[in-house]
Amino acid sequence: MKTLIKYIFLLFLILFSFNKKAFSEESIKIGLIVPLTGEYKEIGESIVKATRLATNKINDSKIEIFPRDTEADPNTTFKVAQELYENGIKIIIGPIFNENLIHLNKLKNVIFLSLTNKLINNPKNVISTGINAVSQIKTIKKYLNQNEIKKTVFMIPNSEVKYEIEEAILQSKIKLKEKFVYDTDPTILTSQIEDLTYYKIRKQNLEDEILRLQNSNDASKEKKIETLKKRDTLGGINFDSVIIADFDESLKSVATSLLYTDVNSKRIHYICLNQWFDKSLLKEENIQPIYFPSINKKNYDKFIKEYNEIYGKHPNQLSFLSYDLIGLVYFLIYKNDFIVDDKIFYKKNKFKGKIGIFEINQNKITHTLNFYSVENKKFKEIF
To answer: The whole model's pTM is what?
Structure first.
């Protein structure tokens, strides 16, 4: 009897080892759906090249990438995704644009790692992998707590990003003094910021104080008046930091309006969202220092250099993300004994990529980011 039990146990071990070997010899098939023709062709091509770089780095012949052209069209996106699924592919990186997600819920057995950073109203089988607002605000929250900054105004443009930002504020549980929604029209924006900063009151305070001194018997009033005339306003403001949820010229427009109302970055903390190290900010000395959460700059610079050396071009920002996603999928499949099921992105996991740390939990991905400032015409890492 004991001999029989030993034989059965040995047989089980052999079969188990065989199955593990069979799994390990299976190819890792990853779909990639991006625009390869039309207006967004260059973005798609950059992403494809970045995934090739990633597979070369991993150096495992089992990885197979299957790129398909979405034409940046939702119907074409669904069609090529369906073809990939019919060929046995259950994990697909892409699409890029949020509007191309609309039909993908029909492919319930496929997991889509969309390059979008939007979280609201995505199909259940779509995981947003972009640097989303939740990840960014959590990083900002860490900076505020470390520096005991307690009276923060969150400035949100009245645009399509408004609901994403408001949802991220709720999820991150950041403590704010005020949420301030502003108009994207610059002519309206300035008057709104005047109200936020009590500019007219502080302007009047200055005029009143100068008049008071002029009518006083103060022996040093001329010197005091001369000093006051060099100022724009008089009086404090009731916040110590602003988070501006804007980018490019719109961000600069908001910052300029704050400067106009005599609220500069030396007086309060100017904080914004991920700027992907926009070099034009280095020239904006009047708004420095300005702080923002972002990906790991050292790794990003290395990626750009390597990509440029191989392909002779500058990569798109999304290609850096797609580079990491190849490693992430490989890591999770390998960890799951090469089984691709609906739990693979549901289990709590962490993956250290070039961007930063990917935190996976319940079919959601957030990123642990770095924090930087633009100061003295340089990008400076804070943490």
So the answer is: 0.90
